[in-house]
Amino acid sequence: MNGAFELRSETASATLSDEDVRRLASGIAHDFNNLLSVVMGRAELLLLEMPPDGSQREHVEQVIRAGQRAAALSRQLLAFTKPHGERPTSVDLHVVSSSMRGMLQRMLGDDVHVEVRTEGPLPKVRADARRIEQALVNLCVNAREALPSGGRVTIATWVASGSGASGPEAWPPPGRWVVLCVEDTGVGTDDETSSADAAHSRGLGLAIVRRSVTQLGGVVRVRHERGRGSTVEMCFPAIDVSIPHERATSAGESAAILLVEDDDMLRRTLASALRQQGWHVATACTPEEAIPLVADTPPDVIVLDLTGPASGTTGAADRLRSMSPEAVVVLLSSYDASAAQAAEPVGTAFLQKPFMPAQLTATIREMLESR
Length: 371
What we know:
12 strands; 371 residues; Helix Hairpins; Rossmann fold; Heat Shock Protein 90; 3 domains; 7-stranded mixed beta sheet; 5-stranded parallel beta sheet; alpha/beta; single chain
């Protein structure tokens, strides 16, 4: 009897420990993403002050690229602790695939060379970056199984336009697409093998990738020749998102912005970036501190950090906004699922940490101009 009780107690403790680990990982990711936002933000501000031909620009650009890779790693780790909920955003497929290269190379081993390339600047696509990353992992693991003696995996991106022609050779479908292609030099597969082996494959099979891409509005084409490798082309509808790099002179030129962020270093970094745009910026550490600021000067924009995954945090945004109903709201968070739910009302946007200051300023300008 005592043995059974001890076993049940140990099982309950293990269950609680798993939950504790998930909460701890989410909390660490929140703090880590705040630090990454500071590093990337300060590097961007420093870059803006350098001459175009400055000898030190490359060092700062390397800091930004390293921060972007670390951000991708943080998203991948957070995906394990928060498997539910997603929010499509504008995504650069080449940036996503480039940030994955190091991890994929380590995963596939030294005898498989991973190459990432693109054909010129790409328009962005509407997608969840984690879904793209998971698709790349699945396809690369399948490629690894087709390369028992080593070889090459090439991840390429380009823009394609469908002509509207019909027939089996017509590709891609009508429209403008961004193509993300994974090609290997392996033994080749066929659809029947891929489906039959899906349950036993670490890559989970092409069916999972097809479903993910289709849910994002895309299409997939698989080409293979046994003994000569396989090619998987994932096509996503292109969207045009222009991000201004210089201070504009149109809507929002003298906007009043309230920035609520509990991390001191990040709050200062973002405030500096916003003031560089010519905006009037007031800052607060908590929503409670922000209330008298709103009462004194109603802002045009409220930038609010959601400090935790609890849905109660969104009440602060509602309270601040009720005091300034004309203001647009930008929510910042590492907890993407809860923030996505909070960002549903019209006039509210969401940015997942870490992000570059240019992304925040572009989001604010877009919202002010469309108000």
